[in-house]
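A reminder before we start the practical. When you read a complex entry, don't treat the lines as separate problems. The point of joint prediction is that each chain is placed relative to the others, so the output describes one connected object in space. Small molecules and nucleic acid strands, if listed, are placed in the same frame. In the example below there are two entries. Take a minute to note the order of the lines before looking further.
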Amino acid sequence: MQHSDAKLVERCLGGDAHAWENLVRLYSRRILNLGYHYTGRLDVAEELTQEVFLKVYQNLRSYSASTGSLQNWIMRVARNLIIDYYRATRHDKQVAGSEELEVLDFEQDSQSASPFENLYLKEKAHYLMKGLSMLTPELKEAVLLRDIQGLSYQEIADMLEIPEGTVKSRINRGRIELAKVLRKGSNPEGFAVS
Amino acid sequence: MNCSRFETLLSEYVDGTLDARVRAALEVHLQTCSACSMLVQEVQSVRSQLADFPPIEPSEELIEAIIEKTSGRFHVRSIWAEVIAPTLRPFLTQRFAFATLIMFVFLLLVGNVIGPDFSAFSFSDFRPSALVEQADRFSSQVQKKWGQIRNTESRLVGEVWRLKEDLYGRLDYHLINMLVRSYQHSIEEQGARKEVKGEKKK
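Here is the predicted structure of the whole assembly.
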Protein backbone atom coordinates (compact mmCIF):
# COMPACT_ATOMS: atom_id res chain seq x y z
CA MET A 1 0.00 0.00 0.00
CA GLN A 2 2.77 2.40 0.97
CA HIS A 3 4.61 1.55 -2.22
CA SER A 4 1.59 2.58 -4.28
CA ASP A 5 1.17 5.71 -2.12
CA ALA A 6 4.78 6.67 -2.84
CA LYS A 7 4.29 6.07 -6.54
CA LEU A 8 1.13 8.18 -6.65
CA VAL A 9 2.83 11.01 -4.80
CA GLU A 10 5.83 10.78 -7.10
CA ARG A 11 3.59 11.10 -10.14
CA CYS A 12 1.78 14.06 -8.60
CA LEU A 13 5.06 15.79 -7.83
CA GLY A 14 6.15 15.06 -11.39
CA GLY A 15 3.26 17.18 -12.63
CA ASP A 16 0.96 14.33 -13.67
CA ALA A 17 -2.46 15.99 -13.58
CA HIS A 18 -4.33 12.69 -13.77
CA ALA A 19 -2.46 11.35 -10.78
CA TRP A 20 -3.45 14.42 -8.78
CA GLU A 21 -7.06 14.08 -9.85
CA ASN A 22 -6.99 10.42 -8.81
CA LEU A 23 -5.65 11.38 -5.42
CA VAL A 24 -8.37 13.99 -4.95
CA ARG A 25 -11.12 11.55 -5.94
CA LEU A 26 -9.63 8.87 -3.70
CA TYR A 27 -9.69 10.91 -0.50
CA SER A 28 -12.27 13.66 -1.03
CA ARG A 29 -15.15 11.57 0.26
CA ARG A 30 -13.38 10.78 3.51
CA ILE A 31 -12.28 14.38 4.07
CA LEU A 32 -15.71 15.79 3.24
CA ASN A 33 -17.42 13.43 5.65
CA LEU A 34 -14.87 14.14 8.35
CA GLY A 35 -15.49 17.84 7.95
CA TYR A 36 -19.23 17.39 8.03
CA HIS A 37 -19.17 15.23 11.13
CA TYR A 38 -17.00 17.74 12.94
CA THR A 39 -18.85 20.87 11.91
CA GLY A 40 -22.38 19.69 11.19
CA ARG A 41 -22.58 21.88 8.06
CA LEU A 42 -22.09 20.69 4.49
CA ASP A 43 -21.12 24.09 3.07
CA VAL A 44 -18.42 24.48 5.70
CA ALA A 45 -17.30 20.89 5.15
CA GLU A 46 -16.94 21.55 1.41
CA GLU A 47 -14.91 24.68 2.03
CA LEU A 48 -12.72 22.89 4.49
CA THR A 49 -12.24 20.03 2.01
CA GLN A 50 -10.94 22.48 -0.56
CA GLU A 51 -8.61 24.02 2.00
CA VAL A 52 -7.34 20.59 3.03
CA PHE A 53 -6.47 19.62 -0.53
CA LEU A 54 -4.84 22.97 -1.15
CA LYS A 55 -2.65 22.38 1.87
CA VAL A 56 -1.92 18.82 0.76
CA TYR A 57 -1.01 20.08 -2.72
CA GLN A 58 1.31 22.71 -1.32
CA ASN A 59 3.01 20.35 1.13
CA LEU A 60 3.05 17.10 -0.81
CA ARG A 61 6.83 17.17 -0.94
CA SER A 62 6.97 16.80 2.82
CA TYR A 63 5.19 13.42 2.72
CA SER A 64 7.41 10.41 3.21
CA ALA A 65 6.22 6.80 2.93
CA SER A 66 8.44 5.88 5.88
CA THR A 67 6.28 7.96 8.24
CA GLY A 68 3.07 6.13 7.40
CA SER A 69 0.34 5.78 4.82
CA LEU A 70 -0.73 8.64 2.59
CA GLN A 71 -4.24 8.35 3.96
CA ASN A 72 -3.05 8.93 7.49
CA TRP A 73 -0.93 11.86 6.43
CA ILE A 74 -3.83 13.51 4.58
CA MET A 75 -6.22 12.79 7.47
CA ARG A 76 -3.76 14.43 9.84
CA VAL A 77 -3.63 17.55 7.69
CA ALA A 78 -7.42 17.52 7.50
CA ARG A 79 -7.89 17.03 11.18
CA ASN A 80 -5.54 19.88 12.10
CA LEU A 81 -7.29 22.26 9.73
CA ILE A 82 -10.71 21.22 10.95
CA ILE A 83 -9.69 21.58 14.59
CA ASP A 84 -8.34 25.07 13.87
CA TYR A 85 -11.65 25.98 12.28
CA TYR A 86 -13.57 24.42 15.14
CA ARG A 87 -11.59 26.35 17.74
CA ALA A 88 -12.02 29.58 15.80
CA THR A 89 -15.78 29.22 15.53
CA ARG A 90 -16.57 27.52 18.83
CA HIS A 91 -16.87 30.77 20.71
CA ASP A 92 -18.86 32.46 17.98
CA LYS A 93 -21.73 30.04 17.82
CA GLN A 94 -22.79 27.04 19.73
CA VAL A 95 -22.66 24.27 17.22
CA ALA A 96 -23.06 21.59 19.86
CA GLY A 97 -26.64 20.61 20.39
CA SER A 98 -28.00 23.46 18.28
CA GLU A 99 -30.63 23.51 15.57
CA GLU A 100 -27.96 24.85 13.23
CA LEU A 101 -26.92 21.28 12.55
CA GLU A 102 -27.61 20.83 8.90
CA VAL A 103 -29.94 17.99 8.18
CA LEU A 104 -29.00 16.65 4.81
CA ASP A 105 -31.23 14.93 2.38
CA PHE A 106 -29.66 11.51 2.20
CA GLU A 107 -31.50 10.60 -0.98
CA GLN A 108 -28.30 9.31 -2.48
CA ASP A 109 -28.85 5.60 -2.16
CA SER A 110 -31.03 4.54 -5.07
CA GLN A 111 -32.14 1.47 -3.14
CA SER A 112 -33.54 3.59 -0.35
CA ALA A 113 -36.26 5.08 -2.52
CA SER A 114 -39.31 5.53 -0.33
CA PRO A 115 -40.00 8.92 1.25
CA PHE A 116 -40.52 7.24 4.60
CA GLU A 117 -37.08 5.69 4.53
CA ASN A 118 -35.53 8.95 3.47
CA LEU A 119 -37.28 10.75 6.31
CA TYR A 120 -36.11 8.05 8.69
CA LEU A 121 -32.52 8.49 7.52
CA LYS A 122 -32.73 12.23 7.96
CA GLU A 123 -34.17 11.94 11.44
CA LYS A 124 -31.66 9.30 12.44
CA ALA A 125 -28.74 11.33 11.13
CA HIS A 126 -29.96 14.41 12.99
CA TYR A 127 -30.42 12.43 16.15
CA LEU A 128 -26.92 10.97 15.99
CA MET A 129 -25.29 14.27 15.09
CA LYS A 130 -27.02 15.94 17.99
CA GLY A 131 -25.86 13.22 20.34
CA LEU A 132 -22.29 13.48 19.08
CA SER A 133 -22.32 17.23 19.53
CA MET A 134 -22.96 16.66 23.26
CA LEU A 135 -19.60 14.94 23.69
CA THR A 136 -16.35 16.68 24.44
CA PRO A 137 -14.21 17.30 21.32
CA GLU A 138 -11.70 14.55 22.18
CA LEU A 139 -14.34 11.88 22.73
CA LYS A 140 -16.37 12.95 19.72
CA GLU A 141 -13.29 12.83 17.53
CA ALA A 142 -12.31 9.35 18.70
CA VAL A 143 -15.82 7.96 18.13
CA LEU A 144 -16.11 9.63 14.70
CA LEU A 145 -12.81 8.26 13.51
CA ARG A 146 -13.53 4.75 14.77
CA ASP A 147 -17.22 4.23 14.13
CA ILE A 148 -17.94 6.49 11.15
CA GLN A 149 -14.61 6.79 9.38
CA GLY A 150 -13.78 3.15 10.19
CA LEU A 151 -10.15 3.70 11.13
CA SER A 152 -8.28 1.19 13.24
CA TYR A 153 -6.93 2.02 16.71
CA GLN A 154 -3.41 2.26 15.32
CA GLU A 155 -4.44 4.57 12.47
CA ILE A 156 -6.24 6.85 14.90
CA ALA A 157 -3.22 6.85 17.20
CA ASP A 158 -0.95 7.79 14.28
CA MET A 159 -3.28 10.50 13.13
CA LEU A 160 -3.81 12.09 16.52
CA GLU A 161 -0.24 11.36 17.60
CA ILE A 162 -1.33 9.83 20.90
CA PRO A 163 -0.78 6.34 22.36
CA GLU A 164 -3.06 3.52 21.27
CA GLY A 165 -4.18 2.98 24.87
CA THR A 166 -5.44 6.57 25.00
CA VAL A 167 -7.33 6.00 21.75
CA LYS A 168 -9.06 2.93 23.16
CA SER A 169 -9.93 4.74 26.34
CA ARG A 170 -11.41 7.72 24.49
CA ILE A 171 -13.44 5.50 22.18
CA ASN A 172 -14.76 3.55 25.11
CA ARG A 173 -15.78 6.61 27.11
CA GLY A 174 -17.16 8.29 24.00
CA ARG A 175 -19.42 5.38 23.13
CA ILE A 176 -20.70 4.98 26.65
CA GLU A 177 -21.32 8.71 26.96
CA LEU A 178 -23.09 8.79 23.58
CA ALA A 179 -25.27 5.82 24.57
CA LYS A 180 -26.31 7.63 27.74
CA VAL A 181 -27.03 10.88 25.88
CA LEU A 182 -29.12 9.11 23.29
CA ARG A 183 -30.97 7.15 25.94
CA LYS A 184 -31.93 10.38 27.68
CA GLY A 185 -33.07 12.17 24.56
CA SER A 186 -34.73 9.47 22.49
CA ASN A 187 -37.78 7.33 22.09
CA PRO A 188 -36.19 3.98 21.27
CA GLU A 189 -39.29 2.53 19.49
CA GLY A 190 -39.45 5.50 17.10
CA PHE A 191 -36.35 4.39 15.18
CA ALA A 192 -37.21 0.75 14.79
CA VAL A 193 -37.28 -0.14 11.11
CA SER A 194 -38.69 -3.43 9.99
CA MET B 1 -14.28 -8.81 37.26
CA ASN B 2 -16.40 -5.89 38.48
CA CYS B 3 -18.56 -3.31 36.64
CA SER B 4 -15.88 -0.64 36.69
CA ARG B 5 -13.32 -2.98 35.14
CA PHE B 6 -15.93 -4.24 32.68
CA GLU B 7 -16.70 -0.70 31.55
CA THR B 8 -13.05 0.02 30.71
CA LEU B 9 -12.95 -3.05 28.45
CA LEU B 10 -16.43 -2.60 26.98
CA SER B 11 -15.41 -1.10 23.62
CA GLU B 12 -12.77 -3.72 22.96
CA TYR B 13 -15.32 -6.41 23.84
CA VAL B 14 -17.82 -4.95 21.38
CA ASP B 15 -15.09 -4.56 18.73
CA GLY B 16 -13.98 -8.16 19.29
CA THR B 17 -10.34 -7.24 19.86
CA LEU B 18 -9.92 -8.82 23.29
CA ASP B 19 -8.01 -12.05 23.71
CA ALA B 20 -10.08 -15.17 24.42
CA ARG B 21 -9.29 -15.38 28.13
CA VAL B 22 -10.33 -11.80 28.93
CA ARG B 23 -13.42 -12.13 26.74
CA ALA B 24 -14.52 -15.21 28.60
CA ALA B 25 -14.20 -13.39 31.95
CA LEU B 26 -16.36 -10.55 30.66
CA GLU B 27 -19.02 -12.95 29.45
CA VAL B 28 -19.16 -14.58 32.84
CA HIS B 29 -19.74 -11.13 34.39
CA LEU B 30 -22.48 -10.36 31.85
CA GLN B 31 -24.43 -13.44 32.86
CA THR B 32 -24.85 -12.01 36.34
CA CYS B 33 -24.97 -8.23 35.76
CA SER B 34 -28.08 -6.79 34.01
CA ALA B 35 -26.74 -3.17 34.11
CA CYS B 36 -23.62 -4.15 32.16
CA SER B 37 -25.71 -6.28 29.76
CA MET B 38 -27.90 -3.28 29.00
CA LEU B 39 -24.82 -1.09 28.56
CA VAL B 40 -23.38 -3.62 26.07
CA GLN B 41 -26.61 -3.55 24.07
CA GLU B 42 -26.69 0.24 24.02
CA VAL B 43 -23.06 0.55 22.95
CA GLN B 44 -23.57 -2.09 20.23
CA SER B 45 -26.63 -0.20 19.00
CA VAL B 46 -24.72 3.11 18.94
CA ARG B 47 -21.83 1.49 17.11
CA SER B 48 -24.04 -0.05 14.44
CA GLN B 49 -26.04 3.17 13.98
CA LEU B 50 -22.87 5.16 13.51
CA ALA B 51 -21.52 2.55 11.08
CA ASP B 52 -24.74 2.93 9.05
CA PHE B 53 -24.44 6.69 9.00
CA PRO B 54 -25.02 7.56 5.35
CA PRO B 55 -21.88 8.98 3.79
CA ILE B 56 -21.95 12.15 1.76
CA GLU B 57 -20.61 11.82 -1.76
CA PRO B 58 -18.53 14.75 -2.95
CA SER B 59 -20.17 16.44 -5.90
CA GLU B 60 -18.43 16.78 -9.25
CA GLU B 61 -18.48 20.55 -8.74
CA LEU B 62 -16.52 20.16 -5.54
CA ILE B 63 -13.94 17.94 -7.23
CA GLU B 64 -13.54 20.44 -10.05
CA ALA B 65 -13.27 23.31 -7.59
CA ILE B 66 -10.53 21.47 -5.71
CA ILE B 67 -8.57 20.73 -8.85
CA GLU B 68 -8.99 24.25 -10.16
CA LYS B 69 -7.87 25.68 -6.83
CA THR B 70 -4.81 23.43 -6.71
CA SER B 71 -3.38 22.35 -10.04
CA GLY B 72 -5.65 24.69 -11.99
CA ARG B 73 -6.23 22.03 -14.61
CA PHE B 74 -9.99 22.13 -14.79
CA HIS B 75 -11.36 24.91 -16.86
CA VAL B 76 -14.91 24.86 -18.05
CA ARG B 77 -14.62 25.09 -21.80
CA SER B 78 -17.39 26.48 -23.83
CA ILE B 79 -17.54 27.95 -27.32
CA TRP B 80 -18.74 31.22 -25.82
CA ALA B 81 -15.87 31.52 -23.35
CA GLU B 82 -13.15 30.22 -25.65
CA VAL B 83 -14.09 31.66 -29.05
CA ILE B 84 -16.98 34.10 -29.18
CA ALA B 85 -16.32 36.26 -26.12
CA PRO B 86 -12.61 36.84 -26.88
CA THR B 87 -13.51 37.72 -30.47
CA LEU B 88 -16.22 40.19 -29.49
CA ARG B 89 -14.43 41.64 -26.49
CA PRO B 90 -12.25 44.13 -28.41
CA PHE B 91 -15.30 45.54 -30.18
CA LEU B 92 -17.06 46.14 -26.92
CA THR B 93 -14.33 48.27 -25.43
CA GLN B 94 -14.84 51.99 -25.17
CA ARG B 95 -12.31 52.61 -27.92
CA PHE B 96 -14.16 50.64 -30.56
CA ALA B 97 -17.69 50.88 -29.24
CA PHE B 98 -18.62 53.85 -31.42
CA ALA B 99 -17.18 52.23 -34.55
CA THR B 100 -18.99 48.99 -33.72
CA LEU B 101 -22.24 50.88 -33.35
CA ILE B 102 -21.79 52.66 -36.69
CA MET B 103 -21.01 49.36 -38.41
CA PHE B 104 -24.10 47.78 -36.91
CA VAL B 105 -26.31 50.66 -38.06
CA PHE B 106 -24.76 50.51 -41.53
CA LEU B 107 -25.47 46.79 -41.81
CA LEU B 108 -29.05 47.41 -40.74
CA LEU B 109 -29.52 50.08 -43.41
CA VAL B 110 -27.96 47.96 -46.13
CA GLY B 111 -30.04 44.99 -45.10
CA ASN B 112 -33.12 47.18 -45.17
CA VAL B 113 -32.41 48.25 -48.75
CA ILE B 114 -31.25 45.06 -50.39
CA GLY B 115 -32.43 42.45 -47.92
CA PRO B 116 -35.82 40.71 -47.85
CA ASP B 117 -38.85 42.84 -47.07
CA PHE B 118 -40.10 41.37 -43.87
CA SER B 119 -43.10 43.67 -43.75
CA ALA B 120 -44.49 41.81 -46.80
CA PHE B 121 -44.61 38.59 -44.79
CA SER B 122 -47.38 37.55 -42.49
CA PHE B 123 -47.62 34.61 -40.14
CA SER B 124 -49.83 32.73 -42.56
CA ASP B 125 -46.93 32.68 -45.03
CA PHE B 126 -45.11 30.36 -42.66
CA ARG B 127 -47.79 27.68 -42.50
CA PRO B 128 -46.50 24.32 -43.76
CA SER B 129 -49.01 24.24 -46.64
CA ALA B 130 -48.05 27.78 -47.67
CA LEU B 131 -44.40 26.89 -47.55
CA VAL B 132 -44.95 23.80 -49.72
CA GLU B 133 -46.93 25.84 -52.22
CA GLN B 134 -44.21 28.46 -52.38
CA ALA B 135 -41.58 25.77 -52.80
CA ASP B 136 -43.53 24.25 -55.72
CA ARG B 137 -43.98 27.62 -57.35
CA PHE B 138 -40.33 28.39 -56.96
CA SER B 139 -39.40 24.99 -58.40
CA SER B 140 -41.47 25.49 -61.60
CA GLN B 141 -39.99 28.98 -62.04
CA VAL B 142 -36.53 27.51 -61.74
CA GLN B 143 -37.35 24.84 -64.33
CA LYS B 144 -38.70 27.43 -66.74
CA LYS B 145 -35.55 29.49 -66.40
CA TRP B 146 -33.40 26.48 -67.09
CA GLY B 147 -35.35 25.79 -70.28
CA GLN B 148 -34.80 29.35 -71.46
CA ILE B 149 -31.11 29.09 -70.71
CA ARG B 150 -30.79 25.87 -72.69
CA ASN B 151 -32.58 27.41 -75.71
CA THR B 152 -30.34 30.41 -75.67
CA GLU B 153 -27.34 28.17 -75.42
CA SER B 154 -28.29 26.13 -78.49
CA ARG B 155 -29.03 29.28 -80.47
CA LEU B 156 -25.70 30.74 -79.55
CA VAL B 157 -23.86 27.54 -80.40
CA GLY B 158 -25.48 27.51 -83.86
CA GLU B 159 -24.50 31.11 -84.47
CA VAL B 160 -20.93 30.44 -83.48
CA TRP B 161 -20.78 27.48 -85.85
CA ARG B 162 -22.07 29.52 -88.74
CA LEU B 163 -19.61 32.27 -88.00
CA LYS B 164 -16.81 29.77 -87.88
CA GLU B 165 -17.79 28.27 -91.22
CA ASP B 166 -18.05 31.67 -92.75
CA LEU B 167 -14.71 32.68 -91.43
CA TYR B 168 -13.00 29.53 -92.67
CA GLY B 169 -14.64 29.99 -96.03
CA ARG B 170 -13.36 33.55 -96.33
CA LEU B 171 -9.91 32.48 -95.20
CA ASP B 172 -9.81 29.70 -97.80
CA TYR B 173 -10.82 32.15 -100.56
CA HIS B 174 -8.11 34.59 -99.65
CA LEU B 175 -5.48 31.87 -99.43
CA ILE B 176 -6.35 30.51 -102.85
CA ASN B 177 -6.26 34.00 -104.32
CA MET B 178 -2.85 34.53 -102.84
CA LEU B 179 -1.54 31.27 -104.25
CA VAL B 180 -2.95 31.98 -107.69
CA ARG B 181 -1.43 35.46 -107.78
CA SER B 182 1.86 34.09 -106.61
CA TYR B 183 1.83 31.46 -109.36
CA GLN B 184 0.92 34.02 -112.01
CA HIS B 185 3.71 36.26 -110.84
CA SER B 186 6.28 33.52 -111.03
CA ILE B 187 5.12 32.56 -114.59
CA GLU B 188 5.40 36.20 -115.70
CA GLU B 189 8.91 36.40 -114.31
CA GLN B 190 9.98 33.25 -116.12
CA GLY B 191 8.56 34.60 -119.36
CA ALA B 192 10.43 37.89 -118.96
CA ARG B 193 13.74 36.07 -118.37
CA LYS B 194 13.35 33.99 -121.51
CA GLU B 195 12.82 37.14 -123.63
CA VAL B 196 15.97 38.69 -122.27
CA LYS B 197 18.02 35.54 -123.11
CA GLY B 198 16.66 35.43 -126.69
CA GLU B 199 17.68 39.07 -127.37
CA LYS B 200 21.17 38.41 -126.10
CA LYS B 201 21.63 35.52 -128.56
CA LYS B 202 20.74 37.75 -131.49
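Discuss with your neighbour: Chain B is about 80% helix and 0% strand. What might explain this?
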